[in-house]
Design goal:
The chain is mainly alpha-helical and about 525 residues long. The chain is about 55% helix and about 5% strand. The mean pLDDT is about 95.
């Protein structure tokens, strides 16, 4: 509990844990969409357990999965929505819960191998809190890396690996958190299933095939429940691959004190430094180097050898994930569409990184307790020094939480009156990313008033929605305004001929008309 809390406070302002403090989120980030989607779902009387809300992207609605909300946590909180603060957010508490579970599963993986307490807990820090985890701070759902560690914990013990119900529970929970984590956990489970099939008798193989089919059926049902189906492919797969030197080069400034000092400005590639970011940190790199030297000179314990043999069974899964994560060459259109659910493919390398650090720690644990503890404690210190710029940058992103202000873009008191006078709210040209912080604040006000918003910033857009937004834009340009609708004009939109907009906080709006 203390380690994840310390890690949290090193990266985030403590006010982010206040569930009534949502303002720091709706500043134009993915976490803002996370909070907005949950806010809409909790205020949508018709939503039930659908994992959809009709208050955003109306009248089509939008699945929580595509607002970057956490379907699992949002669903669990739904029955208690009436008792939550009016402007509740669970992003901060969910983030802390992810870190606690991360530390728990790292401890479960290491506790039977560590030669002493210091070596154990220093190892937990290095395994549970890598730079790749911290780098996901703007997308809290993807900080649920504990699902990867939980899959490794199941896979590395023959008894646990054969427990289909445990895998089913993990896969369903992961499916209700995020697609990418589901892909990683599912591929790891597939490797375990393949090994059981190869090693099993003919009678056992029939049961294993049945278990696989049942799991796929469960995933299909959960996917339908989450709203997967009508979304248009983006054909971006391969644009966010892992750079070949990603493990030892952060590809960004302000991340590593070591690289900023030794190499100067890093080549900036937004795709590779963020989605393809796999930098191990100076402590992680030294850990791998030390582990290689130790493994050449000291024999592994029987327990470590058994764990290493189990890790070898995951090589097909880890190899597949590595190939998918680094691939950036052109692909046929049909394959691009099939891979679109994992278009940010650099993320798929995460399990490989965790397996690498786990192997390195097992090698260091061959040392006596005092030596292993001293070495790993020193590496934790090196890691903290190296990544101090990254921690400062992340903490700056949540500094606004200290103000406890909900709105900073829409402070004019007329906003609430106009929203409440409307029957719906539309943004023109219907593309919220053009000014996402403005969209999030106005949409938050609309949800509070129970007024549907006709667009949304979603991870994927459905065909029906794209066609509807195009029709609405054409109608708007021709002056066919929907009665009772409040129009908010973004920078690229102009009012129809003969319509003079109001100006609120520098934003042109067209008040609702009868």
């Amino acid at each position: 509990m203390l380690l994840p809390l310390a890690f949290y406070l090193a990266l985030f302002h403590p006010a982010t844990l206040d569930i009534g403090n949502a303002g720091w989120l709706i500043r134009g980030t993915d976490n803002g969409e996370n909070a907005l989607g949950a806010h809409a779902y909790w205020h949508d009387a018709r939503a039930g357990a659908s994992l959809w809300t009709g208050l955003l992207n109306a009248p089509d609605g939008v699945p929580l999965l595509f607002t970057d909300s956490n379907p699992l946590a949002t669903l669990v909180a739904k029955p208690f929505a009436a008792w939550l603060p009016a402007d509740a957010q669970l992003v901060g508490p969910i983030l802390l819960a992810n870190l606690i579970l991360q530390a728990l599963f790292a401890w479960l993986l290491l506790r039977r191998h560590a030669p002493g307490a210091i070596a154990l807990w220093a190892g937990v820090v290095l395994l549970a809190f890598p730079p790749t985890l911290a780098n996901r701070f703007i997308h809290v759902n993807l900080m649920a890396h504990w699902t990867i560690l939980a899959a490794l914990w199941l896979a590395l013990d023959p008894g646990r690996a054969a427990r289909w119900r445990w895998w089913a529970a993990l896969i369903v929970v992961t499916a209700l958190i995020h697609n990418y984590l589901l892909a990683m956990v599912g591929i790891l489970w597939g490797a375990v299933l393949l090994d059981r099939f190869v090693q099993g008798s003919w009678r056992a193989r029939a049961g294993i095939v049945a278990q696989g089919a049942a799991m796929l059926a469960i995933v299909a049902v959960v996917a339908h429940w989450r709203g997967v189906g009508d979304q248009m492919p983006t054909e971006f797969y391969g644009a966010f691959a892992v750079p070949v030197d990603g493990l030892w080069h952060p590809h960004a400034n302000g991340v590593s004190r070591l690289f900023d000092t030794l190499t100067g400005p890093a080549p900036y590639d937004p795709a590779q430094w963020y989605e393809g970011f796999q930098y191990l940190g100076a402590g992680g790199l030294l850990l791998v180097g030390a582990a290689w030297l130790i493994a050449r000179r000291r024999p592994a314990s029987d327990a470590a050898q058994r764990t290493t043999r189990r890790l070898r069974l995951l090589v097909p899964a880890l190899g597949l994930l590595a190939i998918l994560s680094v691939w950036s060459a052109p692909l046929p259109t049909a394959l691009l569409h099939a891979l679109d659910p994992v278009r940010a493919s650099g993320r798929l390398f995460w399990p490989v990184g965790y397996a690498l650090i786990l192997l390195a720690l097992l090698a260091v644990y061959r040392l006596p307790a005092r030596a292993a503890g001293a070495l790993l404690a020193g590496l934790v210190a090196v890691q903290a020094i190296d990544l101090a710029p990254m921690a400062r940058g992340i903490r700056t992103a949540s500094a606004d939480a200290a103000t406890h202000r909900l709105y900073v873009r829409t402070t004019d008191p007329r906003w609430d009156a106009l929203v409440r006078a409307a029957t719906s709210v539309a943004f023109m040209p219907g593309q919220p990313p053009r000014d996402l912080s403005l969209y999030q604040e106005v949409a938050w006000r609309a949800v509070d008033a129970g007024r549907p918003v006709t667009s949304v910033y979603a991870a994927r857009t459905g065909r029906r929605t794209a066609e509807r937004l195009a029709r609405e834009r054409r109608a708007f340009d021709h002056g066919a305004l929907v009665p009772g609708r409040l129009y908010v004009l973004l920078r690229t939109a102009s009012p129809p001929a003969g319509v003079t907009p109001l100006i609120l906080d520098g934003v042109p709006v067209i008040a609702p008309r009868p």
